[in-house]
């Protein structure tokens, strides 16, 4: 009985000790300060202050921090794609410039990565032909090599002119059809407003993140944060190859229809 009583005494002491520890822990828990009461000011950020930029007078005008790529006077910001040491040979007249067929593509002197781009383009009023042979050109969002290498946003007369959906105006050529056909009739100016995010690559040259683009055609969203599958391929499937900053390119397509004109081009690096 003596050993049993000893055991009971020790067990009771242990229980009392445990209860005491729990009580202490509970007391400490009650002493933890409560978080302060939330106020509107606690989620307001004042620094760094957002920088001011003077916008254009209209939605088409270049903001103060934009680089004007064509101001209606000359092609000083452009060169020949075939020979970047040579000036662009397209025709400048009446505040616009027009594709001079047979002279080849032209591209910007500077290279860009992520940007906002505004460009206006016009199909001739007396356009002829049909399908892809009716006012065909192209805006390459990044020129990744000679010729037609790059990410092409299609330029075409898609006003009452049916062709394959991923080849009409507003398409990422041979990849993504536009969400809507927002084409104006021939003889009227069209606008593209573009947000382009260039692809990123790993150290070994493999793709890290693909290129993405949002496009408004005459104020209508036709590409909404669209993921590009790689540079444009006329035949076959696109495949990414590592590149860095790249020029923006306009295409001399060489089709028999009347050439396309451009004006009011500006860019903001992001």
Summarize the structure.
The chain has 1 helix and 15 strands. It is mainly β.
Please explain how this structure is put together:
With 270 residues, the chain is mainly β. The protein has a single domain, classed as Exo-inulinase, domain 1 (Jelly Rolls), CATH 2.60.120. Helices cover 11% and strands 28% of the residues. It has one helix spanning 2-30; strands at residues 67-70, 78-80, 91-93, 96-98, 106-108, 115-122, 137-143, 150-155, 189-197, 200-201, 207-209, 212-217, 220-227, 249-250, 261-269. The strands form three sheets. Strands 1, 3, 4, 6, 9, 12, 13 and 15 form an eight-stranded antiparallel β-sheet that branches. A five-stranded antiparallel β-sheet has the order 2-5-14-7-8, with no helix packed on it. A hairpin with a 6-residue loop joins strand 7 (137-143) and strand 8. The model has no long low-confidence stretch (mean pLDDT 90).
What are the key terms here?
270 residues, mainly beta, Jelly Rolls, 1 helix
Largest sheet: 8 strands, antiparallel
Number of alpha- plus pi-helical segments: 1
- Provide the succession of SSEs: HEEEEEEEEEEEEEEE
> If classified by CATH, what would the architecture be?
Sandwich
| Tertiary shape | globular
How many structural domains are formed by the residues? Answer: 1
* Unreliable residue runs: none
In total, how many beta strands? 15
CATH topology: Jelly Rolls
The helix content, as a percent range, equals: 10-25%
What is the radius of gyration computed over CA atoms, rounded to a whole number of angstroms? Answer: 31 Å
Query: From the helix content, strand content and strand pairing, which structural class follows?
Result: mainly beta
Mean of residue pLDDT values: 90
């Amino acid at each position: 009985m003596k050993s049993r009583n000893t055991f009971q005494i020790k067990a009771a002491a242990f229980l009392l000790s445990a209860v005491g520890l729990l009580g202490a822990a509970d007391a400490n828990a009650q002493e933890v300060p409560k978080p302060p009461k939330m106020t509107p000011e606690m989620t307001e950020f004042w620094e760094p202050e957002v920088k001011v930029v003077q916008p254009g007078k209209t939605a088409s005008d270049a903001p103060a921090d934009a680089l004007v790529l064509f101001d209606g006077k000359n092609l000083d910001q452009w060169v020949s794609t075939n020979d970047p040491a040579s000036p662009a040979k397209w025709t400048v007249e009446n505040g616009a410039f027009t594709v001079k067929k047979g002279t080849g593509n032209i591209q910007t002197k500077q290279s860009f990565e992520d940007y906002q781009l505004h460009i206006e383009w016009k199909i001739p009023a007396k356009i002829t032909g049909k399908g892809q042979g009716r006012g065909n050109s192209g805006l390459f969002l990044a020129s990744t090599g000679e010729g037609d290498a790059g990410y092409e946003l299609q330029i075409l007369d898609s006003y009452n002119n049916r062709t394959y959906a991923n080849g009409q105006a507003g398409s990422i050529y041979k990849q993504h059809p536009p969400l809507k056909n927002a084409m104006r009739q021939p003889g009227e100016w069209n606008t593209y407003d573009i947000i382009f995010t260039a692809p990123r690559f790993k150290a070994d040259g493999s793709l890290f993140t693909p290129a993405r683009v949002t496009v408004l055609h005459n104020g209508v969203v036709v590409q909404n944060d669209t993921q590009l599958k790689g540079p444009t391929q006329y035949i076959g499937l696109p495949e990414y190859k590592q590149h860095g900053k790249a020029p923006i390119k306009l295409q001399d397509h060489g089709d028999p229809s009347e050439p396309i004109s451009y004006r009011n081009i500006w860019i903001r690096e992001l």
